[in-house]
Amino acid sequence: MDLKEVIESVENELKILKLGDLNKECDILNDKIMKRTVTRGNIFVYGAGRSGFVGKSFAMRLVQLGFKAYMVGESATPPMKKDDLFIVISGSGKTQIVKDIIEISNRNLVKIVMISAEKVDDEKIYMNIIIGGKSKTSEDKKILPLGSHFEINALIFLDSLIFKLIKAYNLEERVEKITQMYREDRIPVI
Amino acid sequence: MDLKEVIESVENELKILKLGDLNKECDILNDKIMKRTVTRGNIFVYGAGRSGFVGKSFAMRLVQLGFKAYMVGESATPPMKKDDLFIVISGSGKTQIVKDIIEISNRNLVKIVMISAEKVDDEKIYMNIIIGGKSKTSEDKKILPLGSHFEINALIFLDSLIFKLIKAYNLEERVEKITQMYREDRIPVI
Amino acid sequence: MDLKEVIESVENELKILKLGDLNKECDILNDKIMKRTVTRGNIFVYGAGRSGFVGKSFAMRLVQLGFKAYMVGESATPPMKKDDLFIVISGSGKTQIVKDIIEISNRNLVKIVMISAEKVDDEKIYMNIIIGGKSKTSEDKKILPLGSHFEINALIFLDSLIFKLIKAYNLEERVEKITQMYREDRIPVI
Amino acid sequence: MDLKEVIESVENELKILKLGDLNKECDILNDKIMKRTVTRGNIFVYGAGRSGFVGKSFAMRLVQLGFKAYMVGESATPPMKKDDLFIVISGSGKTQIVKDIIEISNRNLVKIVMISAEKVDDEKIYMNIIIGGKSKTSEDKKILPLGSHFEINALIFLDSLIFKLIKAYNLEERVEKITQMYREDRIPVI
Q1: Model ipTM?
Q2: B157 touches chain D (CB under 8 A)
Q3: Subunits close to D (at least 3 CB pairs below 8 A)
Q4: Which of C94, C129, D26, D97 is the most exposed, having the fewest neighbouring CB atoms within 10 Å of its CB?
């Protein structure tokens, strides 16, 4: 199997993201993100392992757009408070650590949004966005191993969400400013 | 613009990955990775910012397959030595920090593979794999902001490379073992 | 040599921190940190390797006290702007990466405070606090290898600074609140 | 209270490390670390938050000395296997996430060494080294807030352990080699 066929299998998994329902949920989540700028609420992001790297990529873009976003587990993440938004990225939503992070965060009465491969049943979750792919532990047979299809779907979904956020709230100028800073090598990214 | 159209723009950028040349380069890189198991060489990975999160996702899969792979900048990364393989992920390949890391690593006579959006001219680079998308600082107009298209292409290219590595060297049993460990929640991933 | 003697050698290196000059510099730095709450400036922290782990420990405490502090290199770190405070922890202050981070940050006209083992000559540095120990590359013979004495001195100096910050600006209530959150296991620290 | 008095309070907490019992436990742990080079076992390190930064500082030194050490939570950490050594750094040893990590790791039959401020009762723990200071959630009144005294004690204890490891197994040449690499700026530390 050559590279072309593998990429096609990735595209096949992306089909779910093109459905109208996800478009609507994306807008709803963007609305919740935007609302925190009014309520002075923070946005927290968490994922374990590779889902966490996707989460960090997402948090970075939110911060670049000027939002107060933080990654759970980083040194400079403040405590959570009531009505903050907490976006969890997890294929199955069911591993012990993910369940405990949700439990601990929920004690602060944050609003928990779960982005997962399949439906996650947990009354602590306020909104569950299902983006397909495949969780690490699913019996489903897919081309890529472990949770790769989910992680790719998550990165593309969240980057698309960022695009829609920019358009919906006219953040183009802010993007241009950051782009300019990168061109002048003024952001100490390591 | 709804989610569907954004995903299509992502797919449009993925076209370059389906070309025969990249398939060949992917096989060559896999061969170099595999060779390190014979020479007892290490594989190092580096990227700055979001390219770094893609790099960590890649390093994680290599380690799960049993390779001696390490991420530059993590606490448990050993010193480099002659003929180790060093895979750098960078849209432009030109920011100051990326150039420094290449300079410093090159003093150890490692073989440097650069995965970038555009061609990178640097005689220290042993192999340059161009995967398109768009670097953060390019003037190119693309749908997603900054280097997102490059980062998505990089994640998908490297995950596809992992798939081909599994097939070419019959690592299915190893994948099955790791999957089983995840199912039994025996991997302390945070 | 038993543990007792090694600890005594550590204490011997700590003597420099007890001198009156450092006490004064500590107060000056605390004043600069506090001032950012008025000017709405951010505090950035950076260190490479083990100095970076000390830096993260420091940034975590600043955030817990309610300051807007960020670690360079983490996903959720915003861009720097004029008059922000940038605290760099580096034994020698002279490695290529540290010099480049200073160069890049300086383009944003931030105020750079360097905490180092020895004096660092660099006109980009606004304030240099010398805390002894020993840099990784110094010829000095000390008991602990590499830069360990510097890193220990840095952690203790910065934790003492935090103590003095709490006292000088009456932040005890805030500390009590965070302690209580830890007791109730409400902070998702991983 | 000036800096001098704060440093003295830190030194006061260090007294426990000078006792003969800890010297003996330090030698026993070093023996276990060394033994893994014979059994081809890995050494895993974990801590949450600031204890984690101490853990990373420790893992980095172990790797520099040539040991196969890994930090739980980093991208390039391999799966655990029977009889690997797992060193956990935690003031109280009792937060939900720390208990989870121990539970999950224990399923792999690793030997768990807990380094804590107070005694931790858990039959999954193979060896408990008590180094004083104060856990974040303890009612004890100490000068520094939260778990700072424990974290400082942990860093100094583990750095002293590294010193004794070098002496006991004649690793001076290895230290000299790494020092030389730092002098030549050949280690890409960020």
Answers
A1: 0.98
A2: no
A3: A, B, C
A4: C94
Domain B3-179 = CATH 3.40.50.300 = no
Is residue A185 within 8 angstroms of chain C, CB to CB? yes
Helix axes B96-106, C96-106, angle to 10 degrees: 170
Q: How far apart, in whole angstroms, are the C-alpha atoms of residue C23 and residue C164? A: 10
D159, two tokens: 């750095």
Q: Which residue has the tokens 């939260």?
A: D146
Check if D38 contacts C (Cβ < 8 Å).
no
Catalytic residues of C: 151
Task: Name the 3-class secondary structure at A9.
Answer: helix
Catalytic member of B151, B172, B173, B176: B151
Q: Are D81 and D108 in contact (CB under 8 A)?
A: yes
Tokens in use for C1? 């040599």
Nearest CA-CA partner of B148 in A14, A169, A44, A156: A156
Give the whole-angstrom CA distance, residue C156 versus residue C128.
17
Q: Tell me how far CA of residue B66 lies from CA of A50, B39, B60, in angstroms.
A: 17, 15, 10
Tokens of A123: 């009354």
D132 near D13, Cβ under 8 Å?
A: yes
The closest CB to that of A190, out of C72, C79, C107, belongs to C72
* Average pLDDT, integer, range C62-69: 98
CB contact under 8 A, A146 and B179: yes
Mean pLDDT of chain B: 97
Q: What does D144-156 look like in DSSP terms, one character per residue? A: SSTTHHHHHHHHH
The residues pairing with C7 across neighbouring beta strands, listed in sequence order, are none
Per-residue pLDDT tens over the stretch D57-68: 999 999 999 999
Written in H, E and C, the secondary structure of chain B is CCHHHHHHHHHHHHHHHHCHHHHHHHHHHHHHHHHHHHHCCCEEEEECCHHHHHHHHHHHHHHHCCCCEEECCCCCCCCCCCCCEEEEECCCCCCHHHHHHHHHHHCCCCEEEEEECCCCCCCCCCEEEECCCCCCCCCCCCCCCCCHHHHHHHHHHHHHHHHHHHHHCCCHHHHHHHHHHHHCCCCCCC
Residue A140 has pLDDT above 90, yes or no: no
Task: Give Rg (Cα) of chain B.
Answer: 17
Distance, CA of D51 to CA of C4 (rounded, Å): 23
CA atoms within 13 A on the CB side of A30: 24
Contact C96 B100 (CB under 8 A): yes
Tell me how many helices (H) and strands (E) chain D has: 6, 5
| φ, ψ at C11 (rounded to 5°) | -60, -35
* Contact status, residue D71 vs residue B74, Cβ threshold 8 Å: yes
Over residues B164-183, mean pLDDT = 97
- Does the predicted model carry a pTM greater than 0.90? yes
Size of chain C in residues:
190
Q: Of all helices (H) and strands (E), which one includes residue C187?
A: none
Question: Chain D closest CA to A116's CA: distance in Å?
Answer: 21
User: How far, in Å, CA of B113 to CA of B124, rounded?
Assistant: 10
Which of A151, A172, A176, A184 is catalytic? The answer is: A151
